[in-house]
Amino acid sequence: MYRPVLKLPQTKAEKIGNYIGGGLFILSILYMIYMWEDLPTNIPMHFDGAGEVDRWGSKWQLLILPAIGLILWVMMALFEKMPHIHNYPERLNEKNVERFYLNSRKLLNEVKNFCLILFAGISVQTIRIAMEKTDSLGWWFLPIVIIGTAIPVIKCLIVSSKIK
Length: 164
Known about the structure:
59% of the residues lie in helices and 7% in strands. With 164 residues, the chain is mainly α. The two termini are 16 Å apart.
């Protein structure tokens, strides 16, 4: 199958997404560091579908969120740089390769940045719950996760279906 290695520049939307996703993620880590000494020993560690706390754990377990977020950030950023290894339909050819690569890379970029924002939000809300400033993630959390991951995928599939 035709799979050239192309160097496609990032779009303005990708750059903005990276600044927003990465910036909020870093800010959440800084917030965690700032609040660390004031955190109680037990903090929320897991939430049910309604956003209610269903497991508590050591504040050290809170470090899992930024660790997973950092791994996702690095891995997805690497895959963004290698669109030639992504999965494409048989109709990929030298006339449409740039559009397929760009569409696939945009999907990865949007999902990566949504995950970073999501992890930042979970970290901040977990700290707020531990500090008794709120009592749950909120009923809106699960719908946001579903919609926030589905929209980029659906958009990518629609764009991909229109590439000839």
